[in-house]
Design a protein that fits this description.
Layout: E1 11-20, H1 25-35, E2 40-47, E3 53-62, H2 64-76, E4 80-86, E5 91-102, H3 108-117, E6 121-126, E7 129-136, H4 138-148, E8 153-158, E9 162-165
Antiparallel strand pairs: 1-3, 1-4, 2-3, 5-7, 5-8, 5-9, 6-7
Length: 185
């Protein structure tokens, strides 16, 4: 797809990758991206229900041609069991945000009210700060950070995005001899 300037459009793509849960796998996969000049904008990794398998959620900005290259190269890795490109309209994405906000006795209630609007939880209270926990998409996290910036954001920790397909389909339910899931756009 070309944009109005005639260049190939780059979009954020969400890859869900099942890999062996072994030492060095993360370095091997992230190295594959860097060797090809792709910047990973978000990466989250964790064990699945099978302790021998980890699931990586990788967000990368690229065009369709580059996406095809990445998927093909990932599938060739011995440690990769399956690669899925999640449909942007059929995926649920979440990240965890922890943010420590500077507070005073005068503005503490206001910070808590804003946190409540975003459905964030207060997880630590100190004399000069509140630590908040928020789960949501990246836009929600960014919006809350913007609102909290007027009080003074002392520290931020974000997990990166995790994603899963909506409905009953799973990364395990696709029939594919190559280990690469279909992805139509």
């Amino acid at each position: 797809m070309r944009n109005t300037e005639g260049t190939v459009a780059q979009e954020y793509r969400t890859l869900s990758v099942l890999v062996d849960n072994n030492a060095g796998v993360l370095a091997r996969i992230s190295g594959l991206f860097s060797r090809r000049g792709f910047n990973i904008t978000s990466l989250a990794v964790g064990e699945t229900q099978d302790a021998a398998v980890s699931r990586m959620t990788i967000i990368v900005r690229c065009d369709r041609r580059a996406l095809d290259q990445v998927v093909t190269q990932l599938a060739k890795q011995e440690c990769v069991r399956r690669v899925e490109v999640l449909d942007e309209n059929r995926a649920i994405r979440r990240e965890l945000l922890l943010v420590k906000v500077s507070t005073t006795t005068e503005n503490r209630t206001q910070v808590i009210e804003i946190a409540n609007i975003f459905r964030a939880s207060v997880i630590d209270v100190a004399p000069g700060s509140l630590t908040l926990e928020l789960t949501g998409d990246a836009d929600k996290a960014a919006a809350m950070l913007e609102m909290m910036s007027e009080f003074g954001v002392l520290e931020v920790v974000r997990t990166g995005t995790v994603a899963i397909e909506r409905g009953t389909g799973t990364i395990y339910s696709r029939d594919s001899g190559t280990g690469v899931g279909a992805y139509d756009e």
